[in-house]
Amino acid sequence: MDIADLRKRYTRNGLDEKDLPLNPIELFRMWIDEALDAEVPEPNAMALATVTEAGAPNVRMVLLKGIDELSARFFTNYQSRKGRELESTPSAACTIWWAELERQIRFSGRVKKLSVAESEEYFRSRPRESRIGAWASEQSRPVANRTELEERFIEVEQMFEGKEIPKPQHWGGYKIIFETIEFWQGRPGRLHDRIFYQLSSGKWNRQRLAP
After folding, report:
1. Which residues are catalytic?
2. Strands 91-98 and 193-200
3. CB 82 within 8 A of CB 176
4. What share of the chain has pLDDT > 90, as a percent?
5. In sequence order, what E strands does 117-211 have?
């Protein structure tokens, strides 16, 4: 089958302004809870877009690790490509897609590093092998082969054998400070619902967008 011929009819739900909160964070949390209840695979996976030094877009999947009234957070290697791009241009845009629920959330905003204490707290909660991996992988740097990477993992594992694994200085969290949030719900006939929130002078403004 030609991918151009692929079609899906969206029929699960809709968005009516009279049922929506004035604060989009309430709806964000509600949709995450519903994705968890629906047992959507990787419900916190999101596409993170940054800007290269040449001004080109660059996108990859990361994991959303929390939201509050002001921001969304994720963790990574500060020396990775995305880390270097965020250092140069501290803004980002993200998309979360839940095919099972025919829903999408997009948001964007300025980016700041989390405090060392916040990053350390989350790092301690990670599985031990993930903490080893944070030391072993020079993320986004070329490696000769898989063996080189695995050997580095073993070296770090042996180095910390019987010891607590501290957070590397090059690893930690970011927060994306919400400036815009958009909720998309699939509807029949491609007349999808798009509700767009924008923060202005500390207040969220809401409007419907054409699909």
Report:
1. 190
2. unpaired
3. no
4. 89
5. 171-185, 193-200, 203-209
